[in-house]
Amino acid sequence: MIRAHVLVCGGTGCTSSNSPAIAEAMEKELAAKGLADEIKVVRTGCFGLCALGPVMIVYPDGTFYSKVTVGDVPEIVEEHLLKGRPVTRLVYDEAADKDTHGVTSLSDTAFYKKQMRLALRNCGVINPEVIDEYIALDGYMALGKVLTEMKPVDVIQLMKDSGLRGRGGAGFPTGTKWDFAAKSVSDKKYVVCNADEGDPGAFMDRSILEGDPHAVIEAMAIAGYAIGADEGYIYVRAEYPIAIKRLEIAIAQAREYGLLGKDIFSTGFNFDIQLRFGAGAFVCGEETALLTSIEGKRGEPRPRPPFPAVKGLFGQPTIINNVETLANIPQIILKGAKWFNSIGTEKSKGTKVFALGGKITNTGLVEIPMGTTLREIIYDIGGGIPNGKKFKAAQTGGPSGGCIPASHLDTPIDYDSLISIGSMMGSGGLIVMDEDNCMVDIAKFFLEFTVDESCGKCTPCRIGTRKMLEILEKITSGNGEDGDIEKLEELAYSIKASALCGLGQTAPNPVLSTLRYFRDEYEAHVYEKRCPAGQCKALARITIDPEKCKGCTLCAKICPVGAISGTVKNPHVIDQSKCIKCGACMEKCKFGAISKA
Ligand SMILES: Cc1cc2nc3c(=O)[nH]c(=O)nc-3n(C[C@H](O)[C@H](O)[C@H](O)COP(=O)(O)O)c2cc1C
Ligand code: SF4
Ligand code: SF4
Ligand code: SF4
Ligand code: FES
Hints:
Elements: E1 4-9, H1 12-16, H2 19-32, E2 39-44, E3 56-59, E4 63-65, H3 73-82, E5 96-97, E6 102-103, H4 110-113, H5 131-136, H6 141-149, H7 152-162, H8 174-183, E7 190-195, H9 204-211, H10 213-227, E8 231-237, H11 241-256, E9 261-264, E10 269-278, H12 287-294, E11 318-322, H13 323-335, H14 337-341, E12 351-358, E13 364-369, H15 374-381, E14 391-396, E15 402-405, H16 415-420, E16 429-434, H17 439-453, H18 459-476, H19 484-498, H20 502-506, H21 509-527, E17 542-544, H22 554-558, E18 564-565, E19 573-574, H23 584-588, E20 594-596
Parallel strand pairs: 1-2, 7-8, 7-11, 8-10, 12-16
Antiparallel strand pairs: 1-3, 3-4, 5-6, 9-10, 12-13, 14-15, 14-16, 17-20, 18-19
Helix pairs in contact: 6-10, 6-13, 7-8, 7-10, 9-11, 10-13, 17-18, 17-21, 18-19, 19-21
The protein binds flavin mononucleotide, iron/sulfur cluster (3 copies) and FE2/S2 (inorganic) cluster.
């Protein structure tokens, strides 16, 4: 009988820090100690705390080990699995009780307690390469229920009643989208899963595909039944090799079990899925560009209407749903619309997965009920801002989103509230910034990304975003002039109004939101030639405080351009016209006499 499970994360993060070798070593060690029949090693998807990888969790006690190495395996087996004494030096800080030297289960840590894992329910729980593990947790039961007990219209009504909205960015109601496609008359229809995930720093969809690929496959088959489609495509970026491998395995296993292919559950319903690989262009995540790319053409957006639900892939009615949207669906079918509807806010139901990054203690993947505040995410789940720094802003929605300042930390997160404060939910990137971040520089970073990723098809986006970037470069390099800020705003609104697709229509958002909340920083750059955060190199002033300087001469010796002058035991001075702001003198001064402003 199995008395313990050792779960080893096989997500991208942990795999890159050697988790496959750890799982293998664990199996060998267990076999050597004669424990192979009573302790099972399970290779799972991501647990969410990727920065602590490779991670391992031991059940039934739920002990969470972080930064495990192959060399730690014999000790874990000997001490924990044989003698019942967890190896506390390897236990994740938050799960180790410093007073009692005991161990808290991972689910009781602050990082997990406020989370609600619906889309991520099986990630870090099952082996995604074994279909039986998915089936053991009610997998494919929703498909069985739909095919044997429900009519397509009932499925669509249930989706509408649940209030599920698309997690890919726009938040369009899923049931309504399915209804449009169901009502489009055609012999051939398609279901497409958008797994392009192009936002910088986002990895929600990758983790779901790596940790629970069958949930997406099952949901696509349910969608196929609801709209009358027999074919599906998953468009996944080629940079996701682990997700692709697990999808290939999952599709093959589902076919073998008769859960994909012809006459599923002997109901006469046929549905199969193919994979298509994206080359990493951000614009290919836009639904019409994605369809064009699947058709084998250059991935450029096309005008809507006609919408894909009417004329989509190969000219046929098509629904496109995001990975996370789909991952929610089997549970909604099994637990009902009311259950899902009871989670979240009035207009945003269920949960949302975020990739937490930037200046935050716990980086990683979190799933929270809609309506959770940004403060709860950042301070309770994320553990706050490291190094005693002050929170400045949180960026949601990636290159299409905006920066939220401290005054809105208590806004409950949902689609509408984020839009009302000038940001957007987006697909789930959440980057935290502290007092050292320059907001003009942040806006420039996102605009550089969109300028690079613009497909060039329409002029407002191709030329307009470049012009905006030029103005930002001018401002951050100290050459900003009176009128530049107004010009930026004017361009931003005209691009938003005239660009062809969502990429251009939302590209100005990071600029507009930083202008809304941090206009004083723009003005300091333009009118005072000063970067308040001290990030814009061209504007930084490195100065020596004569009160603190002891005249040790070390700084003058290290300065690569000879910008520092002074005599021994007398205060030194920096010649601003020579200084290249390399910061070498600041590091060298033992008296803290040199500072940047
Ligand atoms: C430039 C751009 C990039 C996009 N990238 C993605 C993406 O990577 N993944 C995604 O699901 N949706 C992306 N979208 C949104 C899709 O166009 C579409 O709304 C979504 O896939 C619909 O699925 P949902 O209703 O389940 O959210 C992007 C939109 C734009 C304008
Ligand atoms: S808005 Fe930008 S990305 Fe979209 S079609 Fe126009 S040029 Fe291409
Ligand atoms: S290193 Fe510091 S103390 Fe020494 S001369 Fe330079 S500024 Fe003065
Ligand atoms: S920042 Fe660099 S260039 Fe400027 S004074 Fe210091 S060492 Fe010299
Ligand atoms: S990849 Fe291992 S915890 Fe995320």
